[in-house]
Design brief:
With about 140 residues, the chain is mainly alpha-helical. It has one domain: Arc Repressor Mutant, subunit A. It is about 75% helix and about 10% strand. It has a three-stranded antiparallel β-sheet with strand order 1-3-2. The longest helix is centred in the C-terminal third of the chain and has 25 residues. It starts with a helix and ends with a helix.
Amino acid sequence: MPCACAILRRAARAVTQLYDRELRKSGVSPPQLTLLQALSKTGEVTQGALGELLALDSTTLSRTLKPLEQMGWISNRPGRDRRERWLALTADGRNQLERSQPAWDQVQDRLRERLGAEAWEELLPLLARVAAAARDL
């Protein structure tokens, strides 16, 4: 019987390596670009809400946010209590997103072309369902 875990991990590694190779040229990693894209869409948001949106634990999120803040791509301000942090994309962060987005678009297009439009349109919702099902178990 095929192992869903092994197949999904193999696919995730291959896809991550592809995105990493292409995005590295613009100075970001796939997780960093995901955060820049999310902050571009949400506007200012708490770190907790961003973690929930992206299904990231606080340690992973903090580790990925730190270099973005050091590079001046995101702002981080205190909230109502010392545990709450508000995050937002800075002008430099928007510029970095604009520099990196074409590489991301190109990888997306190449994968879509290789898989075929129909399979691509089925894949993304199916992967979201797999993730939701695994979280609910």
